[in-house]
Amino acid sequence: MNKFLMLLSDELRRAKGFYIFLLAFAVIGELAALILALVKQFQIDPMGLNNKIDIVTVLDQSMLTVLVIGGVVLAMIVYSIYTWLREWRLEGAYIYRLLSLPGSRMSVYMAKLFSILLMVAGLLLVQVLMLPLINLIGSFFPRIFRVIAWPQAWVHALNLVYLLVPVGITMGIYYYSAGINFLVSLFNLCIIIGSKKSHGWRKTLLLGGLYFMVFVLLQLAIVMTVVWMPLLQSESSCFFIVAQALMIALNLAGAKYLMNNYISI
């Protein structure tokens, strides 16, 4: 456990600059979307005689907000790849020193995984805090901005935010289990393709392609079963959650094999 915590702390330290930039980008981008929406509405209707804008207009109907949130998601995916690419290509000696330490090699893998999950959790928390902040700033312009009173109504009203911060427990498990599954699969793919195993590039790409294809086919099978099978809502939810949990377990078992047997020191 001490080794894991030390590695986790090290991963977070190495990601500090990138993460601060990403948080600033998200906050400034959404505040810019609010300012642009207020300016546009003031130009159209300075006296507030017609419909007012609200948080839904700012976040769901703003291309800038979509680009900001999409950019943050893409940046996290790219960083998840980079965190392994950095080890194999940029700081190759560092990863091998870590893997040579006594104890399970999975602590290295899990430290990287949990560092990404903690960073995502922080971004989601910032997104949640942005909702009352946008509502508060908008309340200073009562002629053109309509305040939504209840916090839960903000999430329910926002399609984009609801994807990131689902209110219901079931939907949260849906989204986050699929997200964790994707992240673990991405990590495994990076290890297959990027680690310095004595394979030719053709064999490496073939193994990576086969792994990716199996992952996609299994996910499609799960989704198609939920969509096309005549299941009750509770049954389809249970099937999806169990299937994702099994896939995560299989992917982690695959990760353990890759860390212990695929990577050569």
Q: Can you describe this structure?
A:
The protein is mainly alpha-helical. The protein folds into two domains: 1-167, no CATH class; 168-265. Helices cover 80% and strands 0% of the residues. The chain contains eleven helices and no strands. The protein has helices at 2-14, 16-44, 55-59, 63-90, 92-99, 106-138, 151-157, 159-164, 169-194, 201-228, 233-262. The two termini are 23 Å apart. 23% of the residues are buried.
What is the alpha-carbon Rg in Å?
Answer: 22 Å
Domain count, please report it: 2
Mean pLDDT: 83
Low-confidence stretches: none
Say what oligomer this is: single chain
For the largest beta-sheet, the strand count, sense and barrel status come to: none
Gap from first CA to last CA: 23 Å
Order of helices and strands: HHHHHHHHHHH
User: So how many helices?
Assistant: 11
Helix content: over 70%
Morphology call: globular
Keywords:
265 residues; mainly alpha; 2 domains; 11 helices; globular; transmembrane; transmembrane helix; membrane
List the helices and strands and how they pair.
Elements: H1 2-14, H2 16-44, H3 55-59, H4 63-90, H5 92-99, H6 106-138, H7 151-157, H8 159-164, H9 169-194, H10 201-228, H11 233-262
Helix pairs in contact: 1-6, 2-4, 2-6, 4-5, 4-9, 9-10, 9-11, 10-11
Provide a quick synopsis of the model.
This protein is mostly helical. The chain has helices at residues 2-14, 16-44, 55-59, 63-90, 92-99, 106-138, 151-157, 159-164, 169-194, 201-228, 233-262.
